[in-house]
Amino acid sequence: MKEIVAQLEEKARSLRIAIVKTLHKSQSGHTGGSLSAIDMITVLYFHAMRHDPANPQWEGRDRFVLSKGHAAPAQYVALAEAGYFPREDLMMLRRLGGHLQGHPDSKGTPGVEVCTGSLGQGLSMANGMAMGLRLDGRENRVYTLLGDGELQEGQVWEAAMAAAHYRLDKLCALVDFNGLQIDGEVARVMNVSPIAEKFRAFGWHALEIDGHDIGAIIDALDAARKVAGQPTVIVARTVKGKGVPFFENKASYHGVPPSDQELPLALESLGDNAR
Amino acid sequence: MSGMVATRDAYGETLAELGAENENIVVLDADLSGSTKTALFAKKFPERFFNMGIAEANMVGTAAGLAAVGKVPFVSTFAIFATGRAWEQVRQSVAYPKANVKIVATHGGVTVGEDGGSHQSVEDIAIMRAIPNMTVIVPADGPETRAAIRAVATMRGPVYVRLGRNKVPTLFADDLPFVVGKGCELSAGDDLTFVTTGMMTAQAVKASEILAAEGISARVVHMATVKPLDQEILIKAARETKLVITAEEHSIVGGLGGAVAECLSECCPVQVIRLGVRDRFGISGKAEELLKYFSLMPEDLADAARGALAKR
Question: Which of B48, B58, B97 is the closest to A124 by Cβ?
């Protein structure tokens, strides 16, 4: 287990480097929320989920919906690392002629299951997937990652109600609780706390973890797999911009890419020896 | 070819038949299954029917998720909620990814009647038509509804089908094939053309009979598919009759009249008169009273034709 955690930590570090380089190249995109979510995305793609990058449509695959679609760079670097498409494609993020849209688009990007980007819609789609897979008698799990600011959307709570009502126990939602949204602190813009208690009141099994503790993420996903009769939410406390000290906990880096001056400093703080 | 059938009844019965033919069909409703008639499907296939409660946004998103794992979801509620309340979910979760979701809404237009303006959808055709990848269909009667529902169940991609609340006259024969994107000529004529959709086609047929008695020959073109619009039949009618009058149980802004005006102004400029709800909300009353109130009776259509022809 220790070895697995160490490997995944190293993988997450390399994916942080890829996020920073990708966003620097595109000069457009969401840095803070990609870096806060990447540890969870790393564990999902390189440990927890059954999937086959050589066969993105494999029926036995688990599903992942990035409901906070603006963290697309985090999903894209994971998909490229897993082998869904060449790493060079990352350099075309948000550019005309590339397939990596500003927010995930299932029409063009292998490994992306649905279109997200307009906040609040991913959990509903994940519910639908879990309902459809269950109708077919399949055991596939469905994961979705939401932002904490995103929880302000009413549709999330319609979906939370429905997931519990239909007892979608193959569904696991993760909340990237970094505490910041574009206009500032979530607690000040429109407080969503207490998050776990809200989900519990809606009928969910709720876990609270440190979203940068790889071992804790693995344990929580394992625990979710054992829950029967209700969906699970993992409320993961995170740091926006995690890994690059001058990005950390700054709402101002929500949608701002690293500048030319910031790039070498950011890569240095991530221990990028290859730059 | 006679009798009166509500398109929502034809829908419910057809959906229940399709459920037996295609086990991938699933149905979602938002607490209106008795009114939309999806309750017939729910009774036969309870495991494939999902009542989503009064939460249309989540219902549409859930349908997109079901489509993403290979199901063929039919989503039903009243037109005002399916298209209005959930518009952005239809755009983002359904149309943008080209999800194979069929939105079949009932209670379109002012013939909803007594419930009044809050429930009378007069913008749905316009706002669904504006979304890329979306097909928009408004059947005229029971048999055409049956055929259209069967057609959309087998075509891939997002569709909006608008149905009505009340019984409407039957115009079409049973088992007529429905071709998405094709209009049809219900009555020949050379002096003008009525281009209509939904239940207004029956009104246009009656108007053409009134005019025929006066020696005015009115063509009736039924546009069951408002998008993609059958430009061929429309341009031919414009070229041959030089006057086009559209009629719909919908706002004159952006619906069938808008689509026809857009097409003809570019491809065959002739006079286009748009009959419908004149940029205002609906109002409570009986359906028949409201059709009179909004000048959508056969005599109103005939008047519009007489007036335009008199000015020539």
Answer: B58
